[in-house]
Amino acid sequence: MESLIKAAGAIGVQVDDATTERFRRYRELLIEWGSRTNLTAIKDPEAIVEQLFIRSFRVAVQAGGSVTTAGWFDGRRIIDIGSGAGIPGLPLKLILPEADVTLLEANRKKCDFMEHVVADLGLDGIEIINERAEIAAHFDNLRESYDLATARVVAKLPVLAEYTLPFLKQGGVAVLPKGPDPETVRSESDEAAYAADEMGAAPAIIQAVAHPGTSPTDHKVYRLKNRPTSARYPRPAGIPAK
């Protein structure tokens, strides 16, 4: 776990022994449950640390500014949409325990896994919701109530805008990890401009993020929400993805 400790330190977070053990146990559970459930295609222990845990830390890298990562997340309410096996929400919670995290996932078996992990690790300040984003974003206790929203699900940016922005309060930020090709990300971001504006967001900021870790460079798309989202969004399940 030396690489994980170093990676957390690179974004201004000190990982203690107890947190390191929690990451080790989380990895064990991913491997154990993954042998019988389709949680992740990544099975190698070292690859889990690098590609799932450390790469999740990149979500916490702020777009510009001088605020430390821990300061940016301090007391924030965060939602991870389509969390799957808990990535990136659970690794973020482990290194930033002061954050209030919601893991939203439509697959019941994956929610069962995340609930088991949270109980096994004894985590507080984390909620798991088994629901589709298009439905959950209309719940009064979730809608326009988060400071930060992220989604690692495989979907284009116009769809992710509709999945994430309705959850954000005004002043909240959507942080969307995308792939290594800047031209593809820029093109997708341009395609999403109308949808994001409809959801109440400012123009996107795109930032290449190569650290921490040794995984290929990611591009993160940041969208600041500066207006309320119309009550008609998100549209019914399945429509945003069409």
Explained architecture:
The protein is an alpha/beta fold and 242 residues long. The protein has one domain (2-224): Vaccinia Virus protein VP39 (Rossmann fold). Helices cover 39% and strands 18% of the residues. The protein has helices at residues 2-10, 17-34, 45-57, 69-73, 89-95, 108-121, 133-136, 157-164, 182-198, and strands at residues 77-81, 100-105, 126-130, 146-150, 168-178, 205-209, 218-224. Strands 3-2-1-4-5-7-6 form a 7-stranded mixed beta sheet, with helices on both faces. A hairpin with an 8-residue loop joins strand 6 and strand 7. Helix 8 packs across helix 9. The N and C termini lie far apart (41 Å).
Quick gist of this model?
This protein has 242 residues and is an alpha/beta fold. Helix content is 39%, strand content 18%.
How many helices? The count is 9
The first-to-last residue Cα distance is 41 Å
* Net shape: globular
Largest sheet, spatial ordering of strands: 3-2-1-4-5-7-6
The assigned CATH architecture is: 3-Layer(aba) Sandwich
Name given to the CATH homologous superfamily: Vaccinia Virus protein VP39
CATH class: Alpha Beta
Low-confidence stretches: none
Mean pLDDT, to the nearest integer, reads: 92
- Note the beta-strand portion: 15-25%
**Overall strand count:** 7
Helix and strand sequence: HHHHEHEHEHEHEHEE
